[in-house]
């Protein structure tokens, strides 16, 4: 499923467009086009141009509940175990934010207005208190491909890219 949301100012001027792709595993049968498959935004076969590590707080998921996501998967150890996790997991929004902040720092001089677009694929989980390391490759002026991982070595974001104002 593709969900697109437009945010506008009080005068109706478009501020930004958010597009999300949602995979409903095991669902389908709608008879439509399957859509694109295969990897996107693959990093080049060389070490990253820039790499930034940011530690999350042990209580980070409890803080991110303030975003309105009250899913018990992020706070209740018993519920997390029902979902197949050892303990509560961090919100994807927090992981996304850490990677976005890394791009802002590395390529935008911490100026949010220079970030034109940012897309990721959530490919793993972060546990509160872990460090998120964002590895970045500039593949063209203003085009950054990135991945993010934890100290467990697992990719948590993949097929990710940012477009920035150089």
Give a verbal description of the structure:
- By secondary structure, the chain is an alpha+beta fold.
- It starts with a strand and ends with a strand.
- It contains 3 helices and 7 strands; from the N terminus they run E-E-E-H-H-H-E-E-E-E.
- Helix content is 16%, strand content 34%.
- 26% of the residues are buried.
Summarize the structure.
With about 170 residues, the protein is an alpha+beta fold. It has helices spanning about 60-65, 75-80, 90-105; strands at about 1-10, 15-20, 50-55, 115-120, 130-140, 145-150, 155-165.
Question: How are the SSEs placed, and which strands pair?
Answer:
Layout: E1 2-8, E2 14-21, E3 50-55, H1 60-64, H2 77-82, H3 92-107, E4 115-122, E5 131-140, E6 143-149, E7 155-164
Antiparallel strand pairs: 1-2, 3-5, 4-7, 5-6, 6-7
User: Strand sequence of the main sheet, in spatial order?
Assistant: 3-5-6-7-4
Going by helix content, strand content and strand pairing, the class is: alpha+beta
Cα Rg: 17 Å
Instruction: Please outline the major beta sheet.
Output: 5 strands, antiparallel
**Number of DSSP strand runs:** 7
* H/E topology pattern: EEEHHHEEEE
The assembly state of the depicted protein chains is: single chain
Distance between the termini: 32 Å
Mean pLDDT, all residues:
91
Shape: globular
Strand content: 25-35%
Instruction: Outline the low-pLDDT stretches.
Output: none
Q: How many individual helices?
A: 3
């Amino acid at each position: 499923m593709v969900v697109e949301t437009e945010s506008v100012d009080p005068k109706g001027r478009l501020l930004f467009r958010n597009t999300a792709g949602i995979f409903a595993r095991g669902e389908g049968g709608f008879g439509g086009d399957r859509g694109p498959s295969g990897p996107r935004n693959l990093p080049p076969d060389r070490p990253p141009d820039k790499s930034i590590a940011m530690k999350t707080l042990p209580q980070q998921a409890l803080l991110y509940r303030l975003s309105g996501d009250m899913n018990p998967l992020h706070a209740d150890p018993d519920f997390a175990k029902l979902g197949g996790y050892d303990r509560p997991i961090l919100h994807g929004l927090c992981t996304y934010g850490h990677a976005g902040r890394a791009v802002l720092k590395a390529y935008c001089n911490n100026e949010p207005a220079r970030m034109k677009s940012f897309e990721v694929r959530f490919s793993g989980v972060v546990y509160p208190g872990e460090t998120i390391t964002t590895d970045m490759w500039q593949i063209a002026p203003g085009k950054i491909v990135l991945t993010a991982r934890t100290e467990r070595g697992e990719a948590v974001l993949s097929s990710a890219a940012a477009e920035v104002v150089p």
